[in-house]
Design brief:
Largest sheet: 4 strands, antiparallel
Number of helices: 5
Number of strands: 4
CATH topology: Nuclear Transport Factor 2, Chain: A
Shape: globular
Number of domains: 1
Distance between the termini: 38 Å
Low-confidence stretches: none
CATH architecture: Roll
CATH class: Alpha Beta
Order of helices and strands: HHHHHEEEE
Radius of gyration: 14 Å
Helix content: 25-40%
Amino acid sequence: MSTLKCYCCSEKLFSDCCEPFILKKQFAPTAEALMRSRYSAYATHQAEYLVETTAIATRKFHKKTDILNWAKSNQWLKLEILHTTENTVEFKAHYLDNQLHTHIHHERSTFVKSDHHWFYLDCY
């Protein structure tokens, strides 16, 4: 069993937090859980998971190659969850770019539930 802490900063082990969602062994039970797993997917370069967990209505705007390039070109440092509702998550993702400059990506994401599964829809 892995002793690696989860990338999403939950203080849980990766194997007990986001990894089962990324490996499709379980489905995220909430929008926040999906958002956390998507952050972990960026940190572990799981572009296919990111595409698959994007709502069909907006998936055409997210190319797998672009997602993978973005994920790999940054070092993901920390996730801060600022506010959640049933279908929204406001967060800050801290990362270093490929020149080791620190950045904070601040986003308010909207999620939709379809066929009992959560999907990322868009941000505002």
